[in-house]
């Protein structure tokens, strides 16, 4: 590993297009004018402004429901989703929220089983606090987190009846990969080492409380994990897995997948692994190096995760949380926070299919809404295809689109607003209707669906 060089750094132009991609890959898309401002800082300073934010505020109107009532994230179904979506939309620390989402996928925990929005939000705060810290600190915190203790049966696993759930996923999904350098015996031995956690129950609420380690429930016997013998406990279990030789490669490969659809080269995987280990398994330096990588800056495009696009549309159009529709619609488009489909998280290769595509299009109609749509009987729009397209783009914060897409939009505007209008009333009303359609077509385009 001594001969491993650093990860390559992007040396190309850093303009609005690159700044906009960065804000989508490392956040939830730009507000109007943000990509232009970020581009002026240059690539390195742009990345560091995201990884080392000085402003952690939430800026904008407080979230509320359509009747004006405040959110009740601990108590009302869907309000937990809205609570986090509000942070995605209003937070000045965009990468912090985006990394929190990545860790939620990495350590996927679902409220379907936990059945406590309070515990899920508490876990969310833990991930946010440690999202750019060290992986050992994150793994320790998540292992002892009450929501995870319920979800993967850590609490209640005793020396008489050790549960293998967490010991298996600890290796397979969180630190090593599928069958990479361990076997079923290691799973069972980890399960024994992880015994001893328990909790009590609040009689009034019926909720689990007081999660703690009880040494009398722990198996003190000798365990053999990866050939190492000892009376290992839960802390030893985490140390052993993080010092496994397969861990660095797994870690950098999985982390990279959140920023790029194209895998790292073998050389860059070694370089990233070296950086990870040499910094004491710190997350921030690795994220910074990855965000400056040429493939992230100028490589193939990625499909935007559903909740990222939802939040980004709100940010682009200057809308905030003012309805509970976004909670159930996040499920329809394929990514409802706090409810991943299973312990492996969401499958990013399936973001777009016939069902989720239609749901994304329906989301667009609700996002624009009757209040924001142009009324052809009131809004007089000149039948100028280029001007109509420019205004439709401005509605979403003027996202960057390709010349090919722009020509298609101009062609549609010409045909719908000019070519199809024959009667006087049609010439008066069709331009407004066509501009409404342009808004929907823009966010349905491949340029907007990807970044």
Task: Give the N-terminus to C-terminus distance in angstroms.
Answer: 34 Å
Molecular shape: globular
Report Rg: 25 Å
Class from secondary-structure proportions: mainly alpha
Distinct helical segment count: 23
Helix content range: 40-55%
List the helices and strands in order. Answer: HHHHHHHHHHHEEEEHHHHHHHHHHHH
Sheet with most strands: strand arrangement: 1-2
Characterization of the model:
It is a single chain. With about 450 residues, the protein is mainly alpha-helical. It has a domain at about 80-300. The protein has 23 helices and four strands. It has a two-stranded antiparallel sheet. It has a two-stranded antiparallel ribbon with strand order 3-4. Helix 4 (about 80-90) packs across helix 17 and helix 7 (about 115-130) runs antiparallel to helix 8 (about 135-145). The longest helix is centred in the last third of the chain and has 21 residues, at about 425-445. It is globular. It starts with 15 loop residues before the first helix and ends with a helix.
Summarize the structure.
This protein has 451 residues and is mainly alpha-helical. It is 54% helix and 4% strand.
């Amino acid at each position: 590993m001594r001969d491993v060089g650093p990860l390559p750094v992007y040396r190309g132009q850093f303009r609005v297009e690159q700044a906009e991609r960065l804000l989508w890959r490392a956040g939830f898309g730009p507000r109007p004018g943000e990509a232009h401002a970020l581009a002026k800082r240059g690539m390195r300073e742009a990345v560091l402004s995201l990884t080392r934010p000085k402003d952690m505020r939430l800026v904008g109107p407080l979230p509320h429901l359509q009747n004006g009532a405040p959110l009740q994230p601990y108590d009302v179904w869907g309000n937990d989703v809205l609570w986090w979506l509000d942070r995605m939309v209003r937070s000045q620390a965009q990468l912090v929220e985006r990394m929190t989402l990545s860790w939620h996928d990495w350590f996927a925990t679902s409220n379907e089983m936990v059945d406590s929005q309070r515990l899920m939000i508490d876990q969310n705060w833990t991930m946010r606090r440690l999202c750019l810290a060290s992986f050992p600190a994150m793994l320790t915190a998540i292992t002892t987190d009450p929501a995870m203790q319920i979800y993967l049966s850590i609490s209640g696993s005793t020396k008489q009846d050790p549960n293998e759930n967490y010991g298996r996923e600890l290796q397979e999904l969180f630190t090593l990969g599928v069958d990479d350098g361990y076997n079923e015996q290691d799973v069972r031995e980890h399960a024994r080492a992880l015994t001893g956690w328990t909790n009590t129950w609040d009689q009034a609420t019926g909720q689990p409380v007081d999660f703690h380690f009880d040494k009398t429930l722990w198996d003190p016997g000798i365990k053999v994990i990866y050939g190492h013998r000892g009376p290992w406990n839960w802390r030893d279990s985490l140390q052993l897995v993080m010092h496994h030789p397969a861990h660095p490669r797994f870690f950098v490969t999985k982390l990279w997948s959140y920023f790029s659809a194209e895998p790292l080269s073998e050389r860059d995987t070694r370089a990233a692994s070296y950086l990870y280990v040499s910094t004491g398994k710190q997350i921030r330096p690795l994220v910074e190096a990855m965000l400056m990588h040429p493939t992230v800056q100028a490589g193939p495009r990625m499909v935007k995760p559903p909740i990222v696009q939802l939040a980004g549309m709100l940010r682009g159009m200057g809308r905030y949380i003012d309805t509970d529709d976004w909670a159930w619609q996040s499920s329809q488009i394929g990514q409802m926070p706090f409810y991943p489909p299973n312990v492996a998280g969401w499958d990013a290769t399936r973001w777009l299919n016939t069902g989720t595509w239609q749901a994304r299009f329906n989301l667009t109609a609700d996002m624009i809404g009757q209040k924001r749509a142009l009324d052809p009987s009131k809004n007089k729009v000149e039948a100028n295809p280029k001007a109509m397209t420019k205004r439709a783009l401005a509605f979403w914060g003027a996202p960057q689109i390709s010349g090919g897409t722009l020509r298609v939009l101009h062609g549609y505007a010409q045909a719908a607003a000019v070519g199809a209008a024959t009667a006087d009333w049609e010439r008066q009303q069709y331009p407004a209707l066509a501009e409404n359609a342009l808004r929907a077509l823009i966010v349905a385009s491949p340029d907007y669906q990807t970044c």
